From TrEMBL:
Bias type Basic and acidic residues, positions: 1-10, 58-70, 817-832
Low complexity bias (residue ranges): 153-169, 220-234, 776-791
Domain RHD stretches: 351-533
Region described as Disordered: spans on this chain: 1-86, 123-275, 776-834
Feature: compositional bias, Acidic residues: 20-31
Bias (Polar residues) ranges: 194-213, 792-801
Keyword Phosphoprotein carried by entry: yes
Subcellular location: Cytoplasm; Nucleus
Source organism per UniProt: Knipowitschia caucasica (Caucasian dwarf goby)
PANTHER family: NFAT (PTHR12533), NUCLEAR FACTOR OF ACTIVATED T-CELLS, CYTOPLASMIC 2 (PTHR12533:SF4)
Keywords: Cytoplasm, DNA-binding, Nucleus, Phosphoprotein, Repeat, Transcription, Transcription regulation
Name of the protein: RHD domain-containing protein
One cellular-component annotation, GO: cytoplasm
DNA sequence: CAAATGGGTATGATCTCGACA
DNA sequence: GTTGTCGAGATCATACCCATT
């Protein structure tokens, strides 16, 4: 929401300042689509590509456009008609305003309410007049940022481009691969658009102009100098120099190019810079686009510029605009878009939906997005140069199943799927993997593929007749080359060994009030590397997850790829990631099987600990063939418990290592915790949950002074979060009566948003996230819930610091007295935690939430 | 028969770690 | 004893081959 584009910059870029091609002209970017060109001809031949034709600014009438009115007035019908494209066709609307709201053919331009002037040549012109050089000026807003289109600055590009998902503007992305419009990715996703236009998938019909465009704009290239050759030997593997210098269009073997959806986003974005995903959000009217989305007390408004950016706005909904510039910037899903505009299978315009990076709950009191069947823990992703390796499967051989619970509507909904991180602390779209649409005889689920801000998203139907259940048999995983991604400007992730992903599912549920509830659920991690599935041991289950510090208890570890040589190593790391303890457990080789290990838990290094200690263990088959670390808790020996504040108890208990500088003692509201923990060596999860029966704290994590707590609670925690940069990043403004129906997003911090619910509580079948937006308590309007849920779980991270951990004292919000356990909230100032500790926290919270849910169900 | 799928593996790049200065 | 460099081996990433469906 905070990304803006100043077209002046774009024009400068396009004028060649940053373009390697001196004679590069903006118009060149479109010529490949000119009628009669090879590309255009192919498009005409291929109805699947036809929509791209509209991207030619000079020949818009030549291309088979869907009758605009069809789009605009098309009722929101099940999107899986014979030709679902009809629902998702890029909209070049009739110039005449219709229905009181108008969406413009325009780049994705996001404007805060404070913006008063907006000018765009095409905003109020018929698309006939759409200029390939639209101008966008925002007087007084010179600070509006336009992210450098990577393909325009190959100098830097090795070119890394700042394909920031939030800021990506297809408009500014002339580096498209028109000939690839039916291909897998390069033309679709800006993420790899700039990067993979050099993908060997070169169509024979590619025109010289196209090549020019690609050559001129694409920085990183595939090294493959010839079709059908491997990029490695004998020509040698790519080097960074090759990325910098290669202008070749390597051919390559394409096993099974992605069956393209309509790619309205990407297609448009790719073929007509400036459209892209904007089409989803502002794509109903040719001359107008909403520049502001304003909500007053009871009404939603959409503002449209008039008269070249002068502060004249048409008002939608025939409603009176009470304030052009609300005091608080916010972003709501307007009612008017809930249905009439169909984008892909999704009834909501993309731009009105929360960014993929944003955290969303998996459930509310009314709905729950539930992953009924998890995917297999391993799936071999395919490279672009390979064909598809099929859809992600379930352990049983079927496919993952996702169901929306609690939905009583009759309209089908759209389930979105994309690939998210699994190893990152923050759940976000994975930079190195993309979802890949699978089609074929074996695929029963129709799907539609689009690209949202550089992330491929599959949309599949959730229909009431199927009990709002979807079988995910159409989702494969595409691996992007590490070098390509890492060369992107601003990309900090490393591809190497970053091979775990999660399937992220989203659904947006229109509400009677015209707003929308968005839910998100993430699958278990999926290891996408090739070899791991056959070599790396995989721990799937352990019968106990805690034990007294003295050890000695038998633990049964079930999983895969265990061998007679498998060892189980327990280890402990400090907050900064330094390993301080390691102990090999004794494995009963006589009992152990390839899928099961019988392990004797070793004693902890210090039997005098007073806090439960979270450690990890892993199974290792050989050098470096080790499983992912698993959680384990050593519980202290019985000792007199010390009365203290409940908060301290929680703080100490949850993250003893995190606060190991603290001398606080473990305590327990009922003074029995320590004893219970210690005496129940091999504490069962149920028992462990019980320790939180008196509390259901909301936890706010903060790192680096940038906080996440917001709204009401932020005030409550303001004494803790003293950092002046502490900002609200996610606000739920809904009153208990309207709660999740309106999700407000602060436009200032979206990049900071972690997937808190996911990061803290990896979803499991029986452990759905219980994360609500600020200010929302299901208990308030759900009498059936006898236990409250955490109100806020947000997590934010800054760069890891080598400095030693700084214990942060958290305070219970003053208005949440500790004697009201259900209201108790805990704020934890978190500093420099490494993943292990975060995992620890996650685990604790997960158990806590599970316990809460269990109690709620009981 | 063609396409999709999936397993295997060749090969260069990169990383790890010990030896040595 | 510490630090930096080098090189061999291990590991990883990428992509081609090919059998199966």
């Amino acid at each position: 929401m905070s990304a803006f584009y100043e077209h002046k910059d774009l024009e400068e870029d396009l004028s060649g300042a940053n373009c390697p091609e001196d004679d590069f002209q903006f118009e060149d970017l479109f010529e490949y689509e000119a009628p009669g060109s090879d590309t255009a001809q192919r498009h005409q031949d291929d109805p699947n590509l036809s929509t791209h034709k509209v991207l030619s600014p000079d020949s818009d009438h030549s291309f088979p456009l869907e009758e605009p009115s069809h789009y605009h007035h098309k009722p929101y019908s099940p999107p899986y008609s014979a030709d679902p494209r009809g629902d998702v066709l890029p909209v070049f609307e009739h110039p005449e305003p219709r229905g009181g709201y108008h969406l413009a053919l325009s780049p994705r331009i996001e404007i805060t309410p404070s913006r008063e002037h907006f000018q765009h040549d095409s905003l109020h012109n018929h698309h006939q007049n759409l200029s390939p050089r639209p101008t966008l000026t925002v007087p007084g807003h010179e600070n509006l940022s336009y992210r450098e289109p990577q393909c325009l600055s190959p100098a830097s590009s090795n070119s890394s481009t700042s394909w920031h998902s939030e800021s990506y503007s297809p408009w500014a992305s002339p580096c498209v691969s028109p000939s690839n419009s039916a291909h897998n990715t390069g033309d679709l996703c800006p993420r790899f658009q700039n990067i993979h236009t050099g993908s060997p998938r070169t169509s024979p019909g590619t025109s010289p102009r196209t090549s020019l465009t690609e050559e001129g704009c694409v920085g990183p290239r595939s090294p493959s100098p010839r079709a059908g050759s491997r990029s490695t030997s004998p020509q040698g593997k790519r080097t960074y120099d090759m990325y910098r210098n290669s202008g070749l269009l390597p051919g390559h073997r394409s096993r099974s190019p992605s069956p393209h959806g309509r790619h309205d986003d990407q297609g448009i974005g790719a073929h007509f810079p400036g459209l892209g995903d904007s089409m989803n959000g502002y794509s109903a009217g040719p001359g107008l686009m909403p520049t502001k989305i304003v909500k007053t007390a009871n009404q939603l408004y959409t503002l449209y510029p008039e008269n070249n950016g002068e502060a004249n706005y048409l008002m939608s909904c025939d409603q009176e605009l009470k304030s052009k510039t609300p005091a608080e910037p916010f972003f709501v899903i307007p009612q008017i878009w809930s249905k009439p505009l169909v984008s892909g299978f999704c009834g909501l315009p993309v731009s009105s939906l929360p960014p993929l990076e944003w955290p969303l709950p998996s459930r509310t009191d009314q709905y729950e997005l539930h992953i009924e069947v998890q995917p297999r823990p391993h799936h071999r992703a395919h490279y672009e140069t390979e064909g598809s390796r099929g859809a992600v499967k379930a352990p049983t051989g079927g496919h993952p199943v996702v169901q929306l619970l609690g939905y009583r509507g009759k309209d089908p909904l759209c389930l979105q799927i994309f690939i998210g991180t699994a190893d990152e602390r923050i759940l976000k779209p994975h930079a190195f993997y993309q979802v890949h649409r699978i089609t074929g005889k074996t695929v029963t689920t129709s799907s539609y593929e689009k690209v949202l801000h550089g992330t491929k998203v599959l949309e599949i139907p959730l229909e009431p007749k199927n009990n709002m259940k979807a079988i995910i048999d159409c989702a494969g995983i595409l691996k992007l080359r590490n070098a390509d991604i890492e060369l992107r400007k601003g990309e900090t992730d490393v591809g190497r060994k970053n091979t775990r992903v999660r399937l992220i599912f989203r659904v947006h549920i229109p509400q009677p009030g015209g707003t929308t509830v968005s839910l998100q659920a993430a699958s278990h991690p999926i290891e996408c590397s090739q070899r791991s599935a056959h070599e790396l041991p995989l721990v799937e289950r352990q019968d106990i997850d805690s034990c007294c510090v003295l050890g000695g208890q038998q633990m049964i570890v079930s999983g895969q790829n265990f061998s007679s040589d498998s060892k189980v190593i327990f280890l402990e790391k400090t907050q900064d990631g330094q390993q301080i303890w390691e102990m090999e457990a004794t494995v009963d080789k006589d009992k152990s099987q390839p899928s099961m290990l019988f392990v004797e838990v070793p004693s902890y290094r210090d039997s005098n600990v007073v806090h439960p200690v979270k450690v990890n263990f892993y199974v290792i088959n050989g050098k470096r063939k080790r499983s992912q670390p698993q959680h384990f808790t050593y519980t202290p020996l019985p000792s007199p418990s010390i009365k203290s504040e409940p908060l301290d108890e929680y703080e100490s208990f949850v993250m003893p290592q995190m606060f190991y500088h603290s001398q606080r003692s473990v305590l327990n509201p009922d003074n029995s915790l320590v004893s219970n923990l210690c005496l129940s060596s091999g504490l069962s999860p149920q028992t462990e949950e019980g320790r939180f029966q008196q509390q259901s704290p909301a936890i706010v994590f903060s790192r680096g002074g940038k906080s996440l707590s917001s709204g009401l609670y932020q005030q409550q925690t303001s004494t803790v979060m003293s950092d002046p940069h502490h900002r609200s990043v996610l606000v739920h403004t809904g009153s208990p009566a309207q709660h999740p129906s309106i999700i407000q997003f602060s436009p200032t911090n979206q990049q900071l948003l972690p997937r808190a619910d996911e990061a803290l509580a990896p979803p499991t079948h029986d452990n759905q996230h219980v994360v609500y937006c600020e200010g929302y308590s299901p208990q308030a309007h759900s009498p059936s819930h006898h236990q409250s849920y955490p109100s806020v779980i947000q997590q934010q991270f800054t760069q890891k610091s080598p400095s030693p951990p700084t214990p942060q004292k958290a305070r219970t919000p003053p208005d949440n007295p500790p004697d009201h356990p259900t209201d108790r909230r805990v704020t934890v100032k978190e500093e420099n935690l490494d993943q292990a500790y975060l995992d620890d926290v996650n685990e604790i919270i997960r158990k806590d939430l599970t316990g809460v849910q269990a109690r709620g169900n009981s």
